[in-house]
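New to this. Explain these tokens.
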Amino acid sequence: MRLFLLTALAMVAFAGNSLLNRAAVGAGHIDAFTFAAIRVATGAAVLLVLARSQGKTLPWRGRLVPVLALTAYMLGFSAAYLGLEAGPGALILFGTVQITMFAGAVIAGETLPRRRWLGATVSLAGLAALLLPGTGAIPALSPALAMVVAGIGWGIYSLSGRAGADPLAATAANFALALPLVLIPLALMPLQANLTGVAFAMASGAVASGLGYALWFAVVPRLGAARAAVAQLSVPVIAMAGGALLLAELPAPGVILASGLVLAGVALASRR
């Protein structure tokens, strides 16, 4: 029961990033890139404190690929919620991450069973359906493409971290090294932020990202790869439910149908 509760808490934290970002950026409390910068800065601070408190040595070298991928995820994620609702945004992100990791496995020459091919195909069909204008999931193509960029970035980030011996230390280093990169857009455009937007961004970075990732790293070894993959199926569902309850974003029937396809495909690909 304790493992279940900790896992559920981590999934709520992950979905919380979508809800906080949408509530802050979508409502105009803060611009997308300032939100991303505050999220990375506060997330890095929390992760560094946690890593140092456990006596971990941070791996600063050889981090170019994960740092660039993390930067793409953070900037694309925040920019997408200028137009996307919380639930569809999380679903596009989640589906794109799974497709990216599947493609990475194919490129790496891994032997993949038929069910993984079938699952990836079903998920891709669900994503394609979600992006169709008739579903009502996206008001314009640009925010959906921004979330696809974020999903590709997070997928590459996940692939690059599979060989790491200490994910908490690696993530702390990656967040710290990504901070200068996410600050670059702030020099190119006017800033917009009020106290509500800053508070939401800090909560996303310190709690939903920093503490959320740390908790996830603690429970993943006890869950195993298959159960961890299935557990993450709940993130878009939680984000969609939270968007309906907290942000009055009720999903259209087409969105629900496309969501079912994406989640069914991922579940099929994740089975042992």
